[in-house]
Amino acid sequence: MSDTITKERIFTSGVYAKRELAIIRGKGVTLWDDQGKTYIDCVSAHGAANLGHSHPAVVEAITQQAKILISCPEMYHNDIRAALLEKLIRLAPSNIKRAFLCNSGTEAVEAAIKFARFSTKRTEIISFMRGFHGRTLGSLSATWNKKYRAPFEPLVPEFKHVPYNNLEKLEAAISEETAAIILEVVQGEGGVHPGGSDFLLGAQRLCHEKGTLLIVDEVQTGFGRTGKMFAFQHHELQPDMICLAKSIAGGVPMGAVLIGDRIGEISPGIHGSTFGGNPLSCAAALAVLETFEKEKLCERAAQLGESLFSKVRAIKSPLIRDVRGMGLMVGIELKQKVSPYLNQLLSRGVLALPAGLTVIRLMPPLVITTEEIYQIVDAVEEVLSV
């Protein structure tokens, strides 16, 4: 056992189920362990590495900004933050006018919940079965899986969970007391379940009819993952709030809430963040967005995602129940638990994620090559052959 693994076992908190692997370096789609072995990364730091690892543009932006200014709280204005805010708003639908910057996805969800309650003067929040929105108390209240919720109950009151992709059940649940609906366009942790257009557009219609706000959680699906900059763009939705994080700053901690015009004035002091909008993260995020345009990564994700999906779908294995996904976000549902197969993939040099007990989730960086996709599919086919 390596010294790194030994030390982490002794001193770490214990909240993470760790694999017997110490990653010490990354470049593009490739990761290296402390023994010098290489891996194709289909985890992408849980979706935070859409540009891959140590992308030159992000490295350069961080390096240069670190020489100028790292921290600047939002009580002062800052040039880099202003440039990022402008860029984010221009990328969003026309109804989005403002943005709140924070440090992570769960913080973005917490902020959106607070803004929804403050704006509507209502308290009820509706989220969905299989949905995942984070692990802090507000976002955990919106998360469905009992495994995450049970140890911390009672959670924040007045949260409801209804079946995903079921407009009839949603319509029955929504009321004049509902401040917001929060949903993922593709449920990631819940098993890679895409929402249907009729359902998503119907949810938006119900929100407008009831004076309810629509919050779309794009923490995992945002920034090109599904083949468009944001997954809701596949359905031409206009969310009232959009929660962003993970890949927004190329792996540097950052989150954001994009805020639409149905949200009223937000008073100073009702929310805040010490590190939110710091110039270092803003510089990294600007480099990410410029790289997306320069390298046409959304188009690349759509094209290569279609290739990955079709090749995985063509695998003949009695273990496979279904293959689902969008862009470079593919879920392979098996008829049994996936843990042994994830370990077998690791031994063949491919790192992948579970999405629940029975789904293998593949989320490679968007800079992946066709050749690397072939390698991934060959490894998956090999471990699922019986």
Q: What is the CATH architecture term of the largest domain?
A: 3-Layer(aba) Sandwich
The CATH homology group name of the largest domain: Type I PLP-dependent aspartate aminotransferase-like (Major domain)
Q: How many structurally independent domains?
A: 2
The helix/strand series, from N terminus to C terminus, equals HEEEHHHEHEHHEHEEEHEEEHHEEHEEEH
- CATH fold field value of the largest domain: Aspartate Aminotransferase, domain 2
Measured between the Cα atoms of the first and last residue, the distance is 31 Å
Helix content: 25-40%
Q: Classify the secondary structure makeup into a structural class.
A: alpha/beta
Compute the average pLDDT.
Answer: 97
- Global outline: globular
Counting H and I runs of at least 4 residues, what is the number of helices?
A: 13
Oligomer: single chain
CA-atom Rg in angstroms: 21 Å
The biggest sheet, with number of strands, parallel, antiparallel or mixed sense and barrel status, is:
7 strands, mixed
Kindly provide the name of the CATH class of the largest domain. Answer: Alpha Beta
Features:
386 residues; 2 domains; 19% strand; Aspartate Aminotransferase, domain 1; Aspartate Aminotransferase, domain 2; alpha/beta
Could you characterize what this model shows?
It is a single chain. With 386 residues, the protein is an alpha/beta fold. The chain folds into 2 domains: 3-54 and 297-327 and 337-343 and 350-372, Aspartate Aminotransferase, domain 1, CATH 3.90.1150.10; 72-277, Aspartate Aminotransferase, domain 2. Helices cover 37% and strands 19% of the residues. It has 13 helices and 17 strands. The protein has helices at residues 3-11, 44-47, 56-66, 79-91, 105-120, 137-142, 146-149, 167-173, 197-210, 279-295, 297-313, 339-347, 370-384, and strands at residues 23-27, 30-33, 38-41, 96-102, 124-128, 159-162, 178-183, 186-187, 193-194, 213-217, 241-244, 255-260, 320-325, 330-334, 350-351, 353-354, 359-362. It has a 7-stranded mixed beta sheet, with helices on both faces. α4 crosses α10 (279-295) and α11 (297-313) runs parallel beside α13 (370-384). The longest helix has 17 residues, at 279-295. The model has no long low-confidence stretch (mean pLDDT 97).
